[in-house]
Design goal:
It is a single chain. The chain has 335 residues and is an alpha/beta fold. The protein has a domain of 234 residues: NAD(P)-binding Rossmann-like Domain (Rossmann fold). Strands 3-2-1-4-5-6-10 form a seven-stranded parallel β-sheet, sandwiched between helices. It has a three-stranded mixed β-sheet with strand order 7-9-11. Helix 5 links the parallel strand 5 and strand 6. The N and C termini lie far apart (48 Å). The chain binds nicotinamide-adenine-dinucleotide and 2'deoxy-thymidine-5'-diphospho-alpha-D-glucose. The site of 2'deoxy-thymidine-5'-diphospho-alpha-D-glucose (DAU) has 19 residues, from helix 6 and strand 8.
């Protein structure tokens, strides 16, 4: 099988490239990535010379290039996106360009090349924000995106479904909860907090720290997508979750404990505007239909993640001293 993976130099995409080449040594993988601030070829160093792997630098909104690449693949697994909520609050144009226009360009290329199989990687954030006692999101939950990021992902989901209904494009969609693990860009909660603590810095907890997210170890997200592209029903959506709902405060205290720090390392800062209160996922559809469930429990995943950041200081120090430093200063001044 020939896979075209978009955004394969980012956090989840690079984990997926590693996962596929290991599990299916005879598959061919083309990784198309624009190498924005979030794309990093260091994530793929170990497999860059694998004869079944090829990297192409390019933009998903480049119709000519997408037509060329899609003509020569069997399945598209679409990760490429602007992915950070806080950045979408600072400036949302790139989110519309990549997440909406880029996805549309890919869908057109898939349609123009004999209706290629298309898996769209999406997020639970499209469903909005839950109250403390609301039932978890599932595939029937109405869309209610509340940040420029989630609104752009919701638009892309709608386009993907429209191409199924209108043109018979063989699509599937996954809406997954928060991932954590290796190669996670240190602007997001887990890698930011872990690396700040390694550097003896404080960790900025938004608002009262009581917002809830459901956490999934990234390899489990990869195995869910693997199950969907091989066994998923065409036209269907699958919600993917980690069975690990936690407040940000709980996570922070757990990380502090595992890293031998105390609460004096916490700095409570101004809340994210429009901060969604709670996400939770009911993943019974993918469990019942495809036999998928998370395999890594939260404690184990967190330990593995902390170890990875301790053992890969060069990877994140390089990032934290680059363009990211400008972004972080802007964020800080914004508080
Ligand atoms: P990321 O920001 O780490 O990586 C995104 C990748 O896309 C980068 O390598 C970047 O260079 C590339 N990219 C951006 N714009 C591009 C363009 N125009 N053309 C080609 N490549 C481009 O993101 P991530 O956290 O790995 O998320 C991957 C996907 O999974 C996204 O679609 C995101 O919405 C979704 N998702 C993420 C999470 C999470 O917790 N991180 C959870 C659920 C779903
Ligand atoms: O739910 C899936 C989504 O998870 C993905 O679609 C997004 O691409 C991904 O970035 C992630 O979004 P979140 O906004 O939930 O992740 P983030 O790591 O930015 O924040 C997690 C929680 O931690 C959130 O409630 C905000 C809070 N937070 C975050 C940062 C960066 C803090 O308290 N302090 C921080 O410095």
């Amino acid at each position: 099988m020939k896979l075209l993976i978009t955004g394969g130099a980012g956090f989840i995409g690079s984990n997926f490239v590693h996962y596929i080449l290991k599990k299916y040594p005879d598959y061919q993988v083309v990784n198309l990535d624009l190498l924005t601030y979030a794309g990093n070829l260091e994530n793929l160093k170990e497999i860059e010379n694998n004869p079944n792997y090829k990297f192409v630098k390019g933009d998903i909104a480049d119709a000519k290039l997408m037509n060329e690449l899609i003509a020569d693949c069997d399945v598209i697994v679409h990760f490429a996106a602007e992915s950070h909520v806080d950045r979408s609050i600072l400036a949302s144009e790139e989110f519309i360009r990549t997440n909406v226009i880029g996805t549309h360009t890919l869908l057109e290329a898939a349609r123009n090349n004999g209706n290629k199989r298309f898996h769209h990687v999406s997020t639970d954030e499209v469903f909005g924000s839950l109250g403390a006692t609301d039932p978890a999101f599932n595939e029937a939950t109405p869309y209610d995106p509340r940040s420029p990021y989630s609104a752009s992902k919701a638009s892309s989901d709608h386009l993907v479904r429209a191409y199924f209904h209108t043109y018979g494009l063989p699509i599937t969609i996954s809406n997954c909860s928060n991932n954590y693990g290796p190669y996670h860009f240190p602007e997001k909660l887990f890698p930011l907090f872990i690396t700040n603590l390694i550097e003896d810095k404080k960790v900025p907890l938004y608002g009262d720290g009581m917002n809830v997210r459901d956490w999934l170890y990234v390899e489990d997200h990869c195995s869910a997508i693997d199950a969907i592209i091989h066994k998923g029903r065409i036209g269907e959506t699958y919600c993917v979750g980690g069975n690990a709902e936690k407040t940000n405060k709980e996570i922070t205290y757990k990380i502090l404990e595992l890293m031998g720090k105390d609460e004096s390392s916490i700095e409570f800062v101004k809340d994210r505007p429009g901060h969604d209160k709670r996400y939770a996922i009911d993943f019974s559809k993918i469990k019942n239909e495809l036999g998928w469930e998370p395999s890594v429990n939260f404690e184990e995943g967190l330990q593995k993640t902390i170890e990875w950041y301790k053992n890969n200081e060069a990877w994140w120090k390089d990032i934290k001293s680059g363009e990211y430093a400008n972004y972080y200063e802007k964020q800080y001044n914004n508080r």
